[in-house]
Structure formats: structure tokens, C-alpha cells
Design goal:
alpha/beta, Rossmann fold, 32% helix, binds S-adenosylmethionine
Length: 247
């Protein structure tokens, strides 16, 4: 992972990965959806990174991940993008032991915190990747392979000039859908109405996806409130869930 030394600023052309002859010939990256904040690590998180990291954190590699080998079994696999501190991730993995979960997050304290939860709950069906989810999806996840994708409260990038940094945009949604197995689901949630409207428009326009509701969906019972969501609710925000399936 390459640390981003910039403050929360506008994306610039320098953010794009422009291939040169001695670099991998990947398409230009279209979204820079995160800013790496220098979060303080608690001592428990530091220890978890040291002792549990080697067991549960899969290194980013620009090659397909052998998911069955990573979990030691074959099971439906669900990918989560941007798990934050991992409260909801751990709860969902505990409630669905028949499924395997891969959580992606760039923020180190969040990775440390979720490792602690993995140990506290004795979870065997959760692995983490600390890297840009756009690259993980593109390089490590095979087409037609996932049972589900969770994108809960992605950074809303409120300012108009920053809207281009939102994850849920047409090209990335097409790529997300390409990694779902037929019948697999894409579940997004946000507490920012303009982003909810963008999600509904973009997901609705992706021909390989089908809405499971007429518009926004009910929050499924198994999705617990996330930390970010709780904060939004206290600020009086609404919450919008969207659940689409791959045709
Ligand atoms: C607003 S927070 C929400 C966290 C959590 N899902 C929740 O609801 O509490 C969004 C998270 O997504 C992460 N994130 C944003 N873009 C990402 C990317 N491209 N790859 C991995 N993580 C990303 C951020 O670091 C941040 O922790």
C-alpha cells in the first residue's frame, strides 16, 4: 500500500496510475476513493497486527487469489469494501458461519481492530486485505466468483468537486458486477441522500444487475448498524439500502 501524504484534497491527474513501459500495463485507475489518515493505534491493535496479522491478513498481490486455499474450504465468498473499524463485518461473519468473508480496508487502526474482533469471537471465516479495493477487485478476484459484495457507508465525498472520488460510479459498478457469480448480490448502504440517488441511478443503469426492490430496499435483518451509520443517525440522517443481484 502506498501512503497518501496529501490532506483531503481534490484528485489530481497525478493520482492516476499512468502505465509506463516498465510498469504493469493496467488500465488507468479511475477512482481515488480514500485518503489515508494517520490514525492512532491502540496497543491492543498494534499487538493484533503483529500476532494475528500473519494469520488473517492476506497480502495484496497483482494475481488471482486462491480463495479456497485462503480459507481451507470451498464456501460462498462475500467481499466487503471499506469495513472501517469492522463492527458490522465481525457480526455478519459470526452470524453466517456457512459463508466466507474477505474484508478490504486501507486504514491500519481498522484492520487492527477487526483482527481483535476475529480473535475475541473465534472467527474462522474472515480474512482481511489492507489495500485499495479497486486494485484488489481488479487483480485478485476472479470473474463470476463472488456470492456477494457489501459496500456499507462508502465515503460520501460531499463536495461537488469531490464527487468523482465516490466508489459507486458506472465503470466500477460494472467491474463489481463482473466479479459476482450469476445470482450473487451487491448490497450498498449510505446515509447521504444525494449519494443514495446516485447509487440508485448507477446500479439501475448497469445491464448485468437487477434491483431486488422497486427502488430502495429494506435493511436486511442480518445487516447490523455500522459505526458510521450510528453516527449519521445521531446527526438526523436517513439510511438507504440498495440490494441488486447479478443476472
Ligand atoms: C465512511 S467509512 C465507513 C466504514 C464502515 N463501512 C462503517 O459503515 O462504519 C468508509 C471506509 O472505506 C474505506 N475505503 C474507502 N475507499 C477504499 C478503497 N478504495 N479501498 C479500501 N478501503 C476504502 C475508508 O478507509 C473508510 O474506512
Amino acid at each position: 500500500m502506498t501512503p497518501d501524504p496529501r490532506p483531503d484534497g481534490d484528485a489530481s491527474p497525478a493520482d492516476d496510475a499512468s502505465p509506463t513501459s516498465d510498469q504493469p500495463q493496467h488500465p488507468r485507475r479511475s477512482i481515488r476513493s480514500f485518503v489515508l489518515r494517520a490514525g492512532r493505534m491502540g496497543s491492543g491493535q498494534v499487538k493484533a497486527m503483529e500476532t494475528l496479522g500473519p494469520l488473517y491478513v492476506l497480502p495484496y498481490k497483482p494475481e488471482r487469489l486462491d480463495v479456497a486455499q485462503a480459507f481451507g474450504r470451498q464456501a460462498p465468498t462475500v467481499l466487503e469494501i471499506g469495513f472501517g473499524m469492522g463492527h458490522a463485518t465481525a457480526q455478519i461473519a459470526a452470524a453466517r458461519p456457512q459463508d466466507d468473508f474477505i474484508g478490504i480496508e486501507v486504514h491500519t487502526p481498522g484492520v487492527g481492530a477487526l483482527l481483535q474482533r476475529i480473535q475475541e469471537r473465534g472467527l474462522t471465516n474472515l480474512r482481511l486485505i489492507q489495500h485499495d479495493a479497486v486494485e484488489v477487485l481488479r487483480d485478485m478476484i476472479a470473474p463470476d466468483s463472488l456470492a456477494g459484495i457489501h459496500v456499507y457507508f462508502p465515503d460520501p465525498w460531499h463536495k461537488k468537486k469531490h464527487n468523482k472520488r465516490r466508489l459507486i460510479q458506472a465503470p466500477f459498478v460494472k467491474e463489481l458486477s463482473s466479479r459476482l457469480a450469476p445470482g450473487g448480490y451487491l448490497h450498498c448502504a449510505t446515509d447521504w441522500q444525494p449519494y443514495a440517488e446516485q447509487m440508485l441511478e448507477v446500479l439501475g443503469a448497469e445491464p448485468t444487475l437487477q434491483n431486488t426492490a422497486s427502488g430502495y430496499a429494506e435493511r436486511p435483518d442480518w445487516r447490523p448498524l455500522t459505526k458510521f451509520e450510528n453516527r449519521g443517525i445521531k446527526l438526523g440522517h436517513g439510511v438507504w439500502d440498495l440490494v441488486f443481484t447479478k443476472r
